[in-house]
Amino acid sequence: MNKEIAIYTISDSIGETSQKLIGAVMVQYPDVAFRNAYRFPFVTDEQELVGILKDAKKEDAIVISTLVNRRLAQVAKEYSLSESLAYYDLMQPFFSMIEEKLHVQPIEKPGIVHKLDTEYFQRISAIEFAVKYDDGKNPQGFLTADAVILGVSRTSKTPLSMYLANRGHKIANLPLIPEVPVPQVLDQVDSDRIIGLICQPEKLVKIRSNRLESLGLGHTTSYTDVEKVRRELAYAQSIFKKYQSQVIDVTDKSIEETAYLVEEHLKKSVAKLR
Amino acid sequence: MNKEIAIYTISDSIGETSQKLIGAVMVQYPDVAFRNAYRFPFVTDEQELVGILKDAKKEDAIVISTLVNRRLAQVAKEYSLSESLAYYDLMQPFFSMIEEKLHVQPIEKPGIVHKLDTEYFQRISAIEFAVKYDDGKNPQGFLTADAVILGVSRTSKTPLSMYLANRGHKIANLPLIPEVPVPQVLDQVDSDRIIGLICQPEKLVKIRSNRLESLGLGHTTSYTDVEKVRRELAYAQSIFKKYQSQVIDVTDKSIEETAYLVEEHLKKSVAKLR
């Protein structure tokens, strides 16, 4: 890494959108060091804003803004034009498009509007559900879950369940262990709601070795033996076949990508039922 | 709601950045119905892309793109210009700014790069930690947690813990109940790592009533009695005072906003230690 750049983000809320965009851009430049420690949330004052822009200019930074306040956005735009600052406003072009089409103005209310609406309560209860029915703790949860996730150890069942729960889905998960029979209650779950996770054995061995290392344990156990892992995965496949579950290969997939595939599958199943 | 608009999102990955932006924009137009069901991920083919753009044009939609492939982005841009389609490319302006400053090109690799790096393993183990030490299940976890979250029932301890865990923080949480003494092990936790959640009593009553309703229970219990709730909250404040914990008022805050404040507090505490 010999090239580096500072990214400033300015928001009148917490600036999550900018952070997502920066994350997506960063992976496109593996040889550039992004210094993204300059996050300025809750900016509502013109003087404060100009102070930040001046610092950004000194550092030759790129400034990303999600200001919803039109006056502040205008100040930042004018400053950037006159000082040749690299300034990228994510909100205003979108607002302009909407104005052009619908002739309406944004309310310019900063921040995620925290509504105690159905969606909010659904999300909270989904998270509590996922914690309660994690790791096969209580298989009765399978009956009321939106989906039951199955997989051998270290196929990312728990993180996937929590990520989906955060998006409002009620998820239970069950570890598959060849020596332990699958709970009978799974027979009552519709196959559309059963998701099996699979992974390349070599990758799984790597993940498991890392796990053992982090626990301060040695490497040479059957837990990380590739032949043993292959047998475990073959057993998992036989279970997926028996229950005609949807199978997702998580090798090289991020939690977000796997979650997306689960959501698409669940949407399709719901559509089929209608 | 008498105005409505369709939003198409096009990505060569899952399109999370667009979704975040749309969420932030939508709250600025409470009277507009956004039809955001047109999410096109994994677009890698020119013909497919043009097909989507044609549909968008027919519907008079706004198209948001996070295509990293320059050729596809160019095709979409040219189509939009010639057909006057409202097209908003989030990636390319950012790429141009970087090119201008550093003279480097993006690798144009679609998708979240899924690396089995330290950060990934840290996130997975943080999520497992939060599940294990949720709801005061095992107070020994307080000793190794990055933060211990305290609060009376329904102050969003669990969702907050899971959200922070997903961002790599090891979080334990403990419900505060006036009749139940706080585990002694909390005395060994540095006050910088203790976070107390507080909420306006009226709001908490509303949240609890909703909770009971969702469980099919009536309203008239001490759980939702505002005087009783006030006493619970006073007890919580006395605990926060005793442990000199950071106190966050979660009234009207989204999980994301509260999580942001916790992270900022933890950062400051770490900085203080250095």
3D structure, described in words:
Two copies of one chain form a homodimer. Chain A is an alpha/beta fold and 274 residues long. Chain A has two domains: 3-102, Rossmann fold, CATH 3.40.50.10700; 118-273, 3-Layer(aba) Sandwich (Rossmann fold), CATH 3.40.50. Helices cover 46% and strands 16% of the residues of chain A. Chain A has nine helices and eight strands. Chain A has helices at 16-26, 46-59, 70-83, 92-102, 118-132, 157-166, 201-214, 226-242, 255-273; strands at 3-10, 32-40, 62-65, 86-89, 147-151, 171-175, 194-198, 246-249. In chain A, the strands form two sheets. In chain A, strands 2-1-3-4 form a four-stranded parallel beta sheet, sandwiched between helices. A four-stranded parallel beta sheet of chain A has the order 6-5-7-8, sandwiched between helices. In chain A, strand 3, helix 3 and strand 4 (86-89) form a beta-alpha-beta unit. In chain A, helix 2 runs parallel beside helix 3, helix 6 (157-166) packs across helix 9 and helix 7 packs across helix 8. The longest helix of chain A is centred in the C-terminal third of the chain and has 19 residues, at 255-273. The radius of gyration of chain A is 24 Å and the shape is elongated. Chains A and B meet through helix 1, helix 4, helix 5, helix 6 and helix 7 of A and helix 1, helix 4, helix 5, helix 6 and helix 7 of B.
